Amino acid sequence: MRLALALLLASALPALSAPCGGDFKDFKAAMAAEARAMGLAESAIEAFMAGAQVDKAVLKADRGQGFFRKNFIEFSQALISKSRLQNAGVYSKKHDRSFDEAARRFGVPRGMILAFWAFETDFGAVQGDFDTRNALMTLAHDCRRPELFQPQVLAAIALTAMGDFEPGVTKGAWAGEIGQVQMLPKDILERGEDGDGDGLITLKTSAPDAILSAAHMLQYHGWRPNEPWLQEVVVPEQMDWSQAGIDKALPASQWAQMGVRAREGDLANLQASLLLPMGRKGPAFLAYPNYKVLFEWNKSFVYVTTAAYFATRIEGAAPYDAGDPEPGLSADQMKALQQRLAAKGYDVGKIDGVLGAMTRAAVQKEQAKAGMPADGWPTPALLGKL
């Protein structure tokens, strides 16, 4: 039944047509019609739509994700603590069998799953108290990202029909994610795993379900077994910094020829991108192909890099060398930078004060034009030149 519903939902996606931004009652009726067209049970549709309402707190949270404005060192220090690292060891031992199964079936190491489990909910302790049904309906009705959230509403109705979702009772994050590893309904429907063998997929209460489901999701998006994802490196004082960045990759052997060396162990014989989250004077990493898979979990560069780094710590790597980065920009300065880059024709996405991948790429090009080291780290000096 689960596979049939997942396939039915996937085939229905191009036809989604519920209006966004208009009367909410009309929107509910349109979404119910979409669900009926899929053949979902009327009882599940009625149970889901009854009492559904807009949650203004969800919209406020969606508009104000200021936490991602922190730089890599600030962000990683905020998320990675001694207690989280210790708890990762505790939960690794407690659920050793599930982690072994995740590695065997999906090729995903426990460190990566533990990192997301820690960051998302502190190993299940803080799963969010937003009404998930209302959160999904609010974001599906809002016109910012309806193409993402309308399918999630249909998936939640499908989960309701299967007994894996309780409308008005199920709670989670403001963006509709559910359970200990915070997965959206469509991912649960399509890649959820019954890790404890009870016949249900209950990510809120079952750690084995959460562990196996997280592994399945990463494998689905392209995780390659027995390969690294991130490795701290030491960079030379001088090199062609324009080769750095997530949008570029070279064989590790070429990075070695440029003077890049592993801080621990050897470089992997793989394509890799040189990441300089805070410029050439700050922490440095080689990101291997598995690193990019993590953006299917979260789109934030600083979050993904921190999660990838934390996973290496769980697996035994040493703390990174923070170096001595050049001073960066404040949130207002970053917005000013983005505005000036946009005026020059660069696509930096939303002017939000967040140093994302597109802003970094534009910064790197402007640094090169100005004869500055093109390491993608914006400084007051660059802002002044613009």
Automatic annotation (TrEMBL):
GO terms for biological process: peptidoglycan catabolic process. GO terms for molecular function: peptidoglycan lytic transglycosylase activity. Residues 1-17 form the signal peptide. Residues 24-311 form the Transglycosylase SLT domain. InterPro entries: Lysozyme-like_dom_sf, MltB-like, MltB_2, Peptidoglycan-bd-like, PGBD-like_sf, PGBDSf, SLT_2. It holds the Pfam family SLT_2. The keyword Nucleotide-binding does not apply. Residues 331-386 form the Peptidoglycan binding-like domain. Keywords: Signal. PANTHER family: LYTIC MUREIN TRANSGLYCOSYLASE (PTHR30163:SF8), MEMBRANE-BOUND LYTIC MUREIN TRANSGLYCOSYLASE B (PTHR30163). This is Lytic murein transglycosylase. It comes from Stagnihabitans tardus.
